[in-house]
Amino acid sequence: MARTNLHELSSRLLLGLSAASHGGTFEGRLRDVAAEAGLNSVRTAEAVKLLEELGRINVVQRGRRGRDTVIAVVSTDSVTLEDAEASLPGRQSKRGSFTYDEIGRAMVDRLLELARDDGLRTAQAEAFDAEAKMLRARIAELEDELSATTAREEELRIRLRAAEEALIRSEENVRRATGGTSPPTRSITVSDDDSKAVLDILRSRRQ
Fold first, then answer.
1. Nearest-angstrom CA–CA distance, 2 and 5
2. Strand locations in 36-168, DSSP E?
C-alpha cells in the first residue's frame, strides 16, 4: 500500500512546481517549493519519484553542487491514491529484481570464470618457464662448446708456433751442416691429425 498521504503531498508539490514555472518549466530551488507545500526532504524525494513515474513531470536537471533544479511540468492532474498504490509496487519490484539465488549463481559463475582464467595463466606460466629452462640449458651447452673450441684453437696456435720455430732451427742446422746450400727436401710422415694439419700449414707458407 502507498505510504500515508503521499499522493496528496505529490499533488501539492506538483501544483507548487506548476505555479513557480515559466512556460511549463520550473527552474530554481526545489526545497523552497517543497517547504511551501509542506514536504520535508524525504517526502520531497518520494513525491518527485512518484511524479516522474506517473509522467506528471520530467526532471531535466537535479539541484546539486549549487545548481538549480530544472523540472518540466508535463501534466497538472492530481495524483490519486490509486495512482500511488499502482506505482509503488513497481518501484519495490525494481529494487527486488535480483533474488538471493540469482546473486549466488552469478557469484559462482564469476568465481568459476576467474578460476578458469587463473588456471590458464598458470599453465601458460609453466609452459614459458619450461621453455626458458630449455633455452638456458641450450645456451649453456653452446657456451661449453665454444669454450672447448676456443681452447682447441689456442692449442693449435701453440703447436703451430712451436713447429715453425722447430722448422727454422732445423733449416738453420742443415745450412750450417751443408756449408750454406739449400737443404734437401725431406718427406715427413706424421700420424697425429692436428700435427699433420700444422705441417701442411707450414709447407704452404714456405711455398
1. 8
2. 57-61, 69-73
Q: Which amino acid is at 69?
A: T
C-beta separation of 43 from 36 below 8 A: no
Q: Do residues 68 and 59 make contact, with C-beta atoms less than 8 angstroms apart?
A: no
How wide is the angle at C-alpha 16 spanned by C-alphas 10 and 19, nearest 5°? Answer: 140
- The angle formed by the CA atoms of residues 21, 28 and 17, to the nearest 5 degrees, is 35
Residues 6 or more apart in contact with residue 80 via CB below 8 angstroms: 7
Is pTM beyond 0.85? Reply is no
For each of the domains in the chain, give its residue range(s) and CATH number, in order of start. 6-95 (1.10.10.10)
- Spatial separation of the C-alpha atoms in residues 79 and 114, rounded to whole Å: 50
Predicted confidence band of residue 88 (pLDDT cuts 50, 70, 90): low
Reading the block at residue 142, the C-alpha cell is: 653452446
Name the DSSP letter for residue 22: B
- Alpha-carbon gap, residue 137 to 150, rounded angstroms: 20
| Structure confidence at residue 17 (pLDDT) | 92
Cβ neighbour number for residue 180 with a 10 Å cutoff: 7
Question: 69-73 and 57-61 as β-strands: parallel, antiparallel, unpaired?
Answer: antiparallel
Cα–Cα distance, 196 to 188 (Å, whole number)? 9
Quick one: pLDDT band at residue 135, thresholds 50, 70, 90?
Answer: very high
pLDDT tens-digit profile of 184-195?
544 455 455 666
